[in-house]
Design brief:
Distance between the termini: 10 Å
Shape: globular
Oligomer: single chain
CATH superfamily of the largest domain: ATPase, nucleotide binding domain
Length: about 270
């Protein structure tokens, strides 16, 4: 393929969702895709890859390099290289917002605080992956307990009049606490706001471990939760930079790294 039209693919095989992005050499995103991972990361990775190609009207022979990241990054046979999530999220944010120095990524099962230098290289990071507390999975469980849609939590929390403190951040105990509050006729918006507040308190502690240097960006599916974003911005005293589709940042970063690997190759 001609030098000016090299295309790379990035696949982020996450615990809850699998994301993908195709990137042209000129820095143009050709297509992107998100599906639920389910029980088979290999199958979902292959599905996302096919859908990326279909959307862009391309075939595998048009792709010059594939980089995979995420929990299932080593399970995909079509991958040329697999890279850690930390590195890919830094690369994705740097591609979108090169001025950013601190990154918060809240994924399905973990939370990452990352600091990058002026060249977009990771200088420090802290990762909370010991339990699901404060992650997308945690919010999913809470939404189910409240019988509301996950995507509606942000708007619901903004209707609060009397925030209720949530004492437990263990997913199991928090779910029990929420069910008890509902049984006592506690308003749903107050409960959701309390949950958001508990999560953001923990998140700020995580960010402080790497040092909050502005500008600050947020990635991951939880960045779509307007209530969480508003609470974080208030506590941090900064305006968060968020991509149009924050869920694909890791996959985009993988594709960006693919372009860099190509330049170092003999193509």
């Amino acid at each position: 393929m001609a030098n000016e039209s090299r295309i790379t693919a990035g696949i982020d095989s996450g615990s809850l969702a699998t994301k993908g992005a195709l990137l042209g050499q000129a820095g143009n995103i050709l297509s992107h895709e998100i599906i639920l991972t389910g029980g088979k990361s290999r199958q979902s990775g292959e599905t996302v890859y096919r859908q990326l190609l279909d959307k862009a009207g391309l075939s595998e022979k048009n792709i010059d390099y594939v980089v995979t990241t995420g929990y299932g990054r080593e399970n995909l046979s079509f991958s040329n290289k697999n890279v850690t999530e930390i590195t890919c999220h830094a690369a994705g944010i740097y591609f979108l917002f090169p001025e950013v120095r601190t990154i918060l990524d809240i994924g399905g099962q973990d939370c990452k605080a990352i600091r990058v230098d002026p060249d977009g290289q990771v200088s420090d990071f802290v990762m909370n992956d010991k339990c699901a507390a404060g992650t997308g999975r945690f919010l999913e469980v809470i939404a189910k307990a409240l019988e509301v849609k996950l995507e509606d939590l942000g708007e619901i929390s903004r209707q609060t009049k009397n925030e209720i403190p949530i004492s437990s951040m263990c997913t199991v105990f928090a779910e029990t606490e929420v069910i008890s509050l509902v049984a006592n006729d506690t308003p749903i918006p107050d409960i959701v706001s309390g949950v958001h507040n508990a999560i953001t308190d923990r998140t700020v502690i995580l960010l402080n471990k790497v040092g909050v240097t502005e500008p600050v960006a947020m990635s991951g599916g939880v960045a779509l939760n307007s209530g969480m974003v508003a609470d974080l911005e208030k506590k941090l005293g900064v305006k968060l930079k968020i991509a149009e589709d924050p869920q694909i940042v890791g996959a985009l970063g993988a594709a960006v790294l693919g372009q860099k690997f190509l330049k170092k190759s003999k193509f």
